[in-house]
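Hi everyone, sorry if this is the wrong subforum. Our group has a chain we'd like a structural model of before ordering constructs, and none of us has done structure prediction before. Sequence below.
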Amino acid sequence: MSGIDPRTPCLIGVARHTWHRADTGEVGAPEPLLMWEQVARAAALDAGVADLLGALDSIQIVYCQTWQYDDPVERLAQRIGAAPKHRHYSGIGGTTTQQLVASTAEAMLRGELDLALVTSAEALATQRAHKQRGERPSYSFRPAEKRPFPWEAPMHPAEVAHEVFQAWLTFALFDNARRARLGLGLDEYRDAIGELLAPMTHVAAASEHAWFPVERSATELVTVRPDNRMVGYPYTKYTVSVMDVDMAAALVVATHERADALGVPQYQRVYLRGWAYATDPTYVAEHHDLSRSPAMGAAAREALRGAGVSLDDVAHFDLYSCFASSVHFALDALGLAADDTRPLTVTGGLPYHGGPGSGYLTHSIAAMVEVLRRDPGACGLVSGVGMHMTKHAYGVYSTTPGPVAPPDSDRIAVSLPSAPPPTIVDEYDGAATVAAYSVVHGRDGAPEWGLVVADLADGARAYAKVLDPALLADAERHELVGRTVRVAPRVVPTALGEGRANIVSGS
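Answer:
Right subforum, don't worry. Here is the predicted structure as tokens:
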């Protein structure tokens, strides 16, 4: 193909595999090293290049929660017969794979890389089964010392005191804030969550890779039953991401000229046309507007601009769907109507396909490549969300190449709030206004406590717990956002032991 920059990055081989419990029984999935090897070899086979793996000049592995090897990249390189000059083992987050593909593309444009493998694997379902049986997996190459989990930011003392840990809780806060901004009723909004996610189950039901290939109606997803308990209001079990799965995927990225040299046919190639990454504040209460994401909008717009396409040109989406709020925020950021007929996922989404740790986007991008090969010339958009609605990555792909350049960081920056984030007050005594809230339910389905993000008169924010049963029940019947409440600190029991926390004492 003439006229194309020879350094243009394209995906030439992809693979993904799910080790279903029905097939593996008690044995489960193999250890992650063997999973990486299997999908790497399958991706090379998909590219149609026999000696591809030995020619790699980059191997990049997404952080694996299942097992920490002493040197994961070197161990994989040895198994596949590679000696790459560039080796990388990533950090965590739902944006990771798209960031790796984007950084690889930029390195290719600079002339630093020509052929790269990006892979991820998790055997978290198998690991859980081992624990339930009181067993320890006999995986290879254990590191000499246990390594700490690579948190990207320290825990905020106020979030520790108020147990602001679980993503199903923090993402519920964002959705409840959005509901209040739109002025929708509580039941109306929960019904809309079902309508949003039900089509994803249709995609998952038709996929051999989905962890839960079961088609469910919108009503079935949001109706509370013993098998579908409320988790964190407004989310039921059937509407939250499932991380404990056994899955691996791999992507092979090459420059256009290297793909030519390897003899990869044009119809096999899918080009990265545009990409961008942006961040919102790290801590939940620091978000100026808890009902939307300026960074998501900035990243989406820049990725589309870089690709030289509009939203109308995008035929296929895979919007990060760990929880409904990440999809809702993406719809708002993109300006995509909820009743748009284009499906929002090509995998089936994280609650139904499954979200293997930080590696879901490896599957998402691989699935998008497969879809675009069947629809030559079309554009596909993939998004990722990391941490508590903090990190946002977008990528635009097509079988049709075009001019390609790194994103404009200055253009992204001007779309983000210039004012410093609200200050988070550890302890507060006085009146406050509810900015967002959720109700935490136990495994028996009963409400246990609530979490409030409160606006203070001076512009600061505070977290507070709701322990009063009557107020917990009211919070799931009537809108709490915007209500004035009384907050006072006191010593209370928590999952981490006794500690001080702000408590909503009345309204």
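For your construct planning: The chain has a mean pLDDT of 96. Residues 186-205 form the longest helix (20 residues).
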